[in-house]
Amino acid sequence: MVALQHPLEFAFPGYAAWSAEWVNLGRIGIVAFFLVSGYVVGLTLSNQSAATFTIRRFWRLYPIYWLATLAYALVALMTGDAQGGFTLAVIAINITMLQGFIGATTILGVAWTLGIEVVFYIQSVVSKLARRLDLSVWLGLCWLAAFGALAWSNYFRLTGFTAVVPLMMFTASLGFSLYLWESQRSRSLLVLLPSAILVVPALGWLLEYDGQGTTSSWTPMGFDSSYLIGLVIFWAFYALRNAEVATPVLWLGKISYSLYLVHTIVMIAVAPIGLPAPVFVAVSVVTSLGAAWAAHVLVERPSIDFGRRITMRRSR
Length: 316
Hints:
Blueprint: H1 2-11, H2 13-21, H3 25-45, H4 50-79, H5 88-96, H6 99-102, H7 112-129, H8 133-157, H9 164-184, H10 188-208, H11 220-239, H12 247-270, H13 277-315
């Protein structure tokens, strides 16, 4: 969905405005991603030590991210698409992957979500070390409260917070709570799920509306519909989790992280050719799939295997 949203809004400015007003494919995909991530973190941490989890996640995420960020910077400089200078401070922060969490400049635009993901990992590892996996889940309510505070500020003080960071931290906690419900019948799901369905949309309306107009390019409808549809899609696939899965879908799952990282690189490389808008979208998506497969085979999968070998040696 993200790899479709970006070329569509690049090629069709009217679609970009419509998606912010009504429903945004990219935001739907991100919401579903954080739900999946929270669930998988719970599943993984329940079967791995904190050290094993940390080592494997590092090798899964960082090498291909660093390579993709470098590739984007080079292509952006060659095509004139670079937004501002890449200072040493910006580069240093982007190396850590935390730029999206602290609101710093992101070199590879889509990587803003990864800092949130890393902080959720840290939160969950701390919970594992404390022998209270549900602690990470209950902290989700603290993140929801932070989202509410920013929404209140936007509505009553006319600030312009996006508030996406605490919202996605809460969303990942919701996915985690689903796993704990499955494995331990933890009641946290009974609190977080109604909050996601009822409280988040109400706060989303406050976040995006100031009584006179919207506080950003998003409308309350676009913000809330995208979030709720992301929830529905996740739960629909969760309901089908025991069904047989077609090989192409499994393939998309394998390359999904690579696809997320490389599709904007492909876009800015293809854009100077000057293709008609529909052709540009089709070429961007197809080429991104091929580039993602190559990145997965050449970089991501070897890095994952290397992380596993390290942890296996440590275990022995």
